[in-house]
Amino acid sequence: MARIGMTRIGVLALQGDFLEHRQMLERVSIPAVEVRKPQQLDEVDGLIIPGGESTTIGKLLVAYGLLHPLRERIAAGWPVWGTCAGAILLARDIGGLDQPLLATMDIVVRRNAFGRQADSFEVDLDVPRLGALPVRAIFIRAPRIIAAGTGVEVLARLADGTIAAARQGRLLATAFHPELTPDTRFHRYFAEQVVGGAAER
After folding, report:
1. What count of other Cβ atoms lies within 10 Å of the Cβ of residue 161?
2. Per-residue pLDDT at 39
3. CATH number of the domain encompassing residue 165
């Protein structure tokens, strides 16, 4: 039986705030691997796609030969978590914008829907899956998840009903940045999905 301490989680390290995710995983004693090449996917049991610039990350996925191997692994049930830009890359629908996507999660996302950098904000979110204590969520030039398919579980919403976090199978998307707070619950939650996937393989 796989355990969290035996699981290795990759952090896509092409662009964006991958260092913060790696540090969060290390805080909860989960070995983290910075992933930049397709062969490194064989070294890990799941992957975090960090925030950053989604168009740039998408182009780099193509340039480094990672886009199609990732799609194949996701189709086979591999756990992937996208935060902010990562959520955009997971989405099947981003409003017709021309950029490379994994397009594997049945969510509709609009980029930078909350405004510019100056419009960034923080809010407490109720996330029942993580317990009674609210999660402090930091939104920075964040995407807006405007719709989710029938197979998607909504984990958290803003006060106006906007989806802030969702899960589909072993895919996880958050429009905000859990790695920028001291709260490790989202990283532990994802690690549990990764452990479950590793135990079945």
Report:
1. 7
2. 96
3. 3.40.50.880
| Crossing angle between the packed helical segments 67-75 and 54-63, to the nearest 10 degrees | 100
> What is the domain count for the chain?
1
Active-site residue set: 84, 177, 179
Domain of 153? 4-200
Cα separation of 115 and 129, whole Å?
29
Q: Indicate the pTM of the whole model.
A: 0.92
Residue 101, pLDDT score = 94
Contact of 43 with 7, CB cutoff 8 Å: no
Question: How far apart, in Å, are the Cα atoms of 74 and each of 43, 127, 170?
Answer: 16, 25, 9
| CA distances from residue 12 to 49, 50, 96, 136 in whole angstroms, order as listed | 5, 7, 24, 24
Return averaged pLDDT per consecutive 10 residues of the chain, 201 residues in all: 69 94 94 96 96 93 96 95 96 88 95 68 96 96 93 96 96 96 96 74 48
